[in-house]
Amino acid sequence: MTQTGSAGADVPAPTPAESSGRHRVVVVGSGFGGLFGTKALRRSDVDVTMVAKTTHHLFQPLLYQVATGILSEGEIAPPTREVLSRQGNAKVLLGEVTDIDLERRLVTSQVLGRETVSAYDSLIVAAGAGQSYFGNDHFAEFAPGMKSIDDALELRGRIFGAFEMAELGATRGEDVDHLLTFVVVGAGPTGVEMAGQIAELAHRTLRRDFRAINTRTARVVLVDAAGQVLPPFGAKLGEKTKKELEKLGVEVKLGAMVTDVDERGLDMKHRDGTVERIESVCKIWAAGVQASPLARTLSEQTGAPLDRAGRIGVNPDLTLPGHPEVFVVGDMIALDNLPGVAQVAIQGAKYAAKEIDGRIKGKPSQPPFKYFDKGSMATISRFRAVAMIGKLRLTGFIAWLMWLAVHLVYITGFKNRVTAVLHWFVSFLGRGRSERTATEQQIFARSALSRLERGAQDLVERRSSPVAGRGASAASHETPPALLEVARHRVRLLAGDPLPRPPRQDEEPLGLDGDTVGADQVAAAPRLVVLRPLDPRLTAQVAERRALPVGQRQRGRHPRPTAGAG
Ligand SMILES: Cc1cc2nc3c(=O)[nH]c(=O)nc-3n(C[C@H](O)[C@H](O)[C@H](O)COP(=O)(O)OP(=O)(O)OC[C@H]3O[C@@H](n4cnc5c(N)ncnc54)[C@H](O)[C@@H]3O)c2cc1C
Q1: Looking at the 3D structure of the chain, how many domains does it have?
Q2: pTM above threshold 0.90
Q3: For 367, which DSSP code?
């Protein structure tokens, strides 16, 4: 059903031998739409391939609890492979979908330079949405969004790290107000939940943990350009939520448009034209979404319109114009002003799965997709939430209990439900946070990678320019050798070198898992091959092994170099 080749190669049609002859369904994404769509096909006479760029299913509504140390990432992101392990007609494929060819019915995905092409008879696209900075993408470096596990762990590191840096600064007698000021941009459910949790951390959880600072003096500011908190919940619940947040010590600034963000703070413009700057090291972006770029890919091939958030207009049965075999569901679609919530994705995916199953069985088509609104809720702090179910409006403890029950039902897996309840006990009844661990890499890796990407791009440009030699030597002068080596590998990837160079006698090639791989594998490998300088003591042995014909080489016969070798 699938074919793998090297990136950039012509896309071959999948070979018939790979097909079982059954109807092939490809599902893009392992979020709410992707996972529930795949599960809904478990009894159908189809082969399902789920292609997703992460190996987990992410329960986004609880990301803020990972960021604030209540839950672990594993509790809200179980491996998709494990979730679907008992579903015999489904397989999981890791890869970022880079192209969908509607004419030839092929989905192309990539992971680390390896390209896979999956053929389909029916397709469900549920690639969701990412963060939008409304055209100011440079804000992202200083104000991370909250869409993925990476984001939540980075924010965890930044939030707890800000308190640590404030303690250090205060010990030296420095002004630490900018370190003890947290700004959350966007007063939707995510922003409200984040602001509430940071306030609880500062005023309750951490208050006894530091010596030089009083965490209760921390400032938590919630900013939004809109005139109310939680706009979809209506004016009354919005006002109630604002008051609850203020009771917790959160400053709520409405009608304030963020105009710039930098390392040390952010600027905003109020409706009356006044400009305000807040000095804050830890900023969190919880405003705005942008649909997956795959919506554009599909729009270009069908003429289906895109809205301002990049969401694609679909037919009332969630299919694309002229392509009844392609369904698009969840956050990617613009249909009847449906909100970007989990239930829209889940119900849409189940509808698409039922339609595919019905077609195979020769049943008539279903009536157009109709979303059943089961209600919305948002937590403000422990024991405080707001809920809107039909005409019912609930606030306070009852709403919070409902929130607890609903989230428990939707967390995937029994094991995760049990541990989540334990962690909630620790945090809500006690004062603790079970998941405060943060590493340096969590905090800095995203920025470092994006800088590296820019650096590598720069190197590629220099390489292909007439002054390549000069540029390259300048780069090696400025960049630490290890970083330069990584950049060189990235250059190879970006430049699309056909094959890596063969290892020299004093180098050994490493596989992705860090194990030594043979020269024959290097020759067959896609573009990224990591070469490690060899322990000089081993050079002779490797040379000897390489001198033998390929079939007679035994891998792993020479001892592993000791730590520090290379
Ligand atoms: C912080 C936060 C809090 C939220 N809180 C709530 C809440 O309380 N209640 C509620 O109802 N909704 C909430 N939502 C919204 C809800 O999570 C989304 O509406 C829902 O996840 C949409 O489902 P989806 O399947 O369309 O997309 P997603 O669940 O986002 O899934 C998209 C999937 O596609 C994959 N993917 C993306 N691009 C590619 C690609 N090119 N190739 C391969 N795979 C790809 C992703 O890895 C992911 O697996 C929240 C969202 C966030 C971010």
Answers
A1: 3
A2: no
A3: P
